[in-house]
Amino acid sequence: MQVFKLYFKLLKNSWVSIAIYAFVFAALIIILSKFQGNEITDFKQSKVKTALVNHDKDSLIVQDFIDYLKDFCDFKDLGNDDMKISDALFFRDVEYVLTIPYNFGEEYLSGKEVTVEKKSVPDSLFTTTVDTAINNYLNTGRSYLEAVPGITEEQLASYIREDVNVKTEVAIDQATENRKDYGFANTYFNFASYVLLSCCLLGIGMVMVTFHNIDILRRNTVAPISIKNINAQLIGGNIIFVLVFDLIFIILSVILSNEKGITENVLLYWMNLIVFSVSAMAMSYLIAMLIKSRQAAQALSNVLPLGLSFLSGAFVPQFLMGDFVLKLASFNPVYWFVRGNDTIAKLNGSNHENINKIFFYMVIQIGFAAALFALSLVVSKKKSQRNN
């Protein structure tokens, strides 16, 4: 077992860099776990900071209209200074400016097509709420003005408020009592792909570069140990190295996750990680065959995993990425690992139709690993022939 022992002696030379990756990953996950909250079961309306300019303060319908909008707007009194209001909008002190014209109430009651003046921060997500509330109130009032001739201002305000204040309770039936939130586990294992691949490229790459040095290869050729025995011990060392990292990731996930039980989803996450680690080991082994220096191995361990992780959806969810990017990413195992994790997160006690897809994604990762190992053997054979 001389080669096996030498493998871990060489691995010690890279333990500092590997430990840094592991430490940074742990820190990121701990920070992430702080934001892991309980499942949200209710909705609370956020009020939009609004500057109000009211030129029709004597109208009862206008006053009722403003009182209604207080449920949606946090009104700010900035006066009638256009420059001051524009500055507040520019510096985001307010997100919406509502101006009610002179004689708005009187003209509205007479049935004229009048509108309020609106300004908002460009591309703001919140102003739609105010626009909807304004249109809801005014359109409801116009319906009563057309349907009830001679209606008084007090009656109109009363009828409008009675209609717009109607609340509808919405319940989503999704068997929530049997469903668990695996959002944290999904993010955790997606991030793990980056660290695992980085550590494999760094650790395995450093060791294999040393073993494939031309002088050491020639010395091993005349050594009493056969090449097959040497390769078997190297593969054994790589497997132990990867399995140790898998075990660390699994233990850390159990410690940090709010879900302490070992469910079917959790087991699938673990299985998917172990399958991916085989692909990561195969990729690292092939790259170690192609590079010629430890500096190259260290550079690749920084650049390649980061690029593959961003491209494959480990950091940015795949549903936010374009079709072309996803097609390009599908030619590497990280993509299928992340896709498997995303599918696992959707499983619950009453939904198992996607479980075959998860195993299919694992098979694809194994296929990548087999192809990479086969390519490594071809490269190794050619290098041996060239060196001899």
Automatic annotation (TrEMBL):
Residues 20-374 form the ABC-2 type transporter transmembrane domain. Pfam families: ABC2_membrane_3. It is found in: Membrane. The keyword rRNA processing does not apply. One of its GO terms (molecular function) is ABC-type transporter activity. The keyword Membrane applies. The chain crosses the membrane at residues 12-32, 191-214, 235-256, 268-291, 303-321, 358-379. One of its GO terms (cellular component) is membrane. It is a multi-pass membrane protein. It comes from the Bacteria. Keywords: Membrane, Transmembrane, Transmembrane helix. This is ABC-2 type transport system permease protein. It comes from Anaerocolumna aminovalerica.
